[in-house]
Amino acid sequence: MAGGASSDRDERASAVDDGDRSDLRAILGGYAELVRLPNLFTAPPDVILGAALAALAGGTPLPTRVGGLALGSVLLYAGGTTLNDAFDAPVDARERPERPIPSGRVARRTAFGLGFALLLVAVAVAFAVAGGPAGVAAGLVAVAIVAYDGFLKGSAAGFLAMGITRGLNVVLGTTAVGAVVLESPRRLLAVPAVVTAYIAAVTFMAARETEGGNRRAVAVASAGAVAAVLALGWFLAGVEPAALEAAVALAFAGAFCWWVGRPLRAAFADPVPSTVGPAVGACVLGLVLLDAAFAAAVGVRWGLAAGLALVPAVGLSRAFDVT
Q: Does residue 156 sit within a domain?
């Protein structure tokens, strides 16, 4: 009898432990979804591209600064997605009830506090590792994020604001030399503009993800991808990289076309949420390949450093949503 009572207590204790672990997994999973864990790895390639552009302009980006700014960009992205869901909670309650806030796994007030805290820490990190110019650049990214999440979402200005956050993220990388590269040729300054336009086009499609039947939105994103590849060709013609750098850049460009082309084609053929959603996700992750293509034109190591971020991003995307 005593042995039976002890066994019952052990089973109850084990059940409590399993319940606690299950609750912890649910909480951690909720926050991982909130910050779009796979997407976080798409932010450092922007910074790496910016550092590569600074090197092309004659600067000497310090590895410690590049790494610190990459961390800052991750925090900016996490803060942005967290605030996105916090602001969108009422809409998500109707359209996406499985998301962390409407499902009750994360409190809306907590999300607001966490989102703004992440942005402030990101700016502080950028300032600490690369000085005033980096702090200003990170601060501008944070302002663009808040403007998009809180006020401009869904409007033409909103699409541009989201693109600007990515373009400024590339500019943030240029501060790894200790200052913004102000005397760079126009061809170098155009690269952040290309990233801005591409992400603005993808955001236009993402805003209509749940509508269905909106082939025009898919066409806009497709045009953005095509324009980005054409801009890469223009960039290569002006930079005139060595044969190896050119080959690696073109390989990344080919991978980008394959990566985003298939889901965009499927979404255009049948623009319903089940095809548009994956197309949005592919385009977001595809930015890593686009960054890598531009960076590889400066140096193979720059391109590989940017492109390797796709590995954890894709791996995590199998467990967490990208959009």
A: yes
